[in-house]
Specification:
By secondary structure, the protein is mainly alpha-helical. The protein contains seven helices and no strands.
Length: 112
């Protein structure tokens, strides 16, 4: 039903499995956008595009994996590691735990 409504709204002939081929609405929207406005020339996926596609896939798989209590802690740790790699400037809570009072006051002053 959703495929038919999307096809009618966009004018595209979408495959019958289009809703199941994409792990979330964002990935489905990206697919439809690519079909509506294909890139000029052959598309070469960049490293960022590949990582984003992997993250979309993980978003779809994560809820099922979190039902395993033993794996949940390991998954959370790995996700924190990924976040630290993606945004190294943000730092971690451990950085603040080891800071002196004066260092914390200096940090607050920098924010003003």
């Amino acid at each position: 039903e959703l495929r038919n409504q999307l096809g009618t709204a966009t004018g595209l002939r979408l495959p019958s499995t289009v809703v199941f081929d994409h792990p979330n609405p964002t990935a489905l929207a990206a697919y439809i956008l690519a079909e509506l406005a294909p890139a000029a020339g052959p598309a070469t996926p960049t490293a960022a595009t590949a990582v984003l596609a992997d993250l979309d896939r993980l978003l779809g798989a994560l809820p099922g994996a979190l039902s395993d209590a033993d794996a949940q802690g390991r998954i959370a740790t790995r996700l924190r590691e990924l976040l630290d790699l993606a945004d190294p400037v943000a730092g971690t809570d451990e950085d603040l735990d080891g800071a002196t009072d004066q260092e914390l006051f200096d940090l607050i002053d920098e924010l003003d």
